[in-house]
């Protein structure tokens, strides 16, 4: 309960079991082996890139970040930008359209690249290397 913001005791007692579950060795091992990449984690990453966890933000700011992230996650940057601009009666300029199209292109490109055989092979090699390092780390013990 140290730090910039302190929790009231009843909140601390409610949150602590959840924290312990999330910080369990089993879950952390799965994360270290790169076995937890799912769509919810990707969406959370997009949200936290828009609204940092490290700084305090108002509820309104968080709601805006979540709405924007969900919209971009579901329909892409260009459609999201067009709908927001249209809703607010703002004209969409060429540069904004180009940047949104570029983001969508990169997103599709990265998705296709990650589905490729070469990427899967590299991912398996990385996982094997991590397992080998972990094995030697466990074998060596604490120094």
Can you walk me through this structure?
The protein has 143 residues and is an all-alpha fold. It has a domain at 1-36. Helices cover 76% and strands 0% of the residues. The chain contains seven helices and no strands. Helix 3 (39-50) crosses helix 4, helix 4 (59-75) packs across helix 5 (77-87) and helix 5 runs antiparallel to helix 6 (94-115). The radius of gyration is 21 Å and the shape is flat. The relative contact order is 0.06. The model has no long low-confidence stretch (mean pLDDT 80).
What secondary-structure arrangement, pairings included, does this model have?
Elements (H helix, E strand, L loop, with lengths): L8 H14 L2 H8 L6 H12 L8 H17 L1 H11 L6 H22 L1 H24 L3
What is the compact description of this entry?
This protein is mostly helical.
Mean pLDDT: 80
Termini Cα gap: 31 Å
Record field, number of beta strands: 0
Q: Class by helix and strand content?
A: mainly alpha
Query: Percent of residues in helical segments?
Result: over 70%
User: How many helical stretches?
Assistant: 7
Uncertain residue ranges: none
Categorize the overall geometry: flat
Tell me about the biggest sheet?
none
Order of helices and strands: HHHHHHH
% residues in beta strands: under 5%
């Amino acid at each position: 309960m140290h730090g910039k913001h302190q929790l009231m005791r009843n909140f601390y007692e409610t949150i602590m079991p959840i924290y312990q579950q999330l910080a369990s060795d089993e879950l952390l091992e799965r994360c270290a082996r790169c076995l937890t990449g799912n769509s919810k984690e990707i969406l959370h990453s997009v949200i936290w890139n828009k609204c940092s966890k490290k700084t305090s933000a108002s509820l309104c700011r968080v709601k805006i970040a979540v709405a924007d992230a969900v919209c971009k996650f579901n329909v892409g940057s260009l459609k999201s930008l067009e709908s927001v601009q249209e809703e607010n009666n703002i004209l969409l300029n060429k540069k904004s359209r180009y940047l949104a199209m570029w983001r969508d292109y990169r997103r599709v490109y990265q998705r296709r690249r990650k589905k490729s055989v070469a990427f899967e092979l590299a991912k398996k090699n990385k996982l094997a290397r991590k397992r080998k390092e972990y094995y030697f780390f466990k074998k060596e013990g604490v120094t």
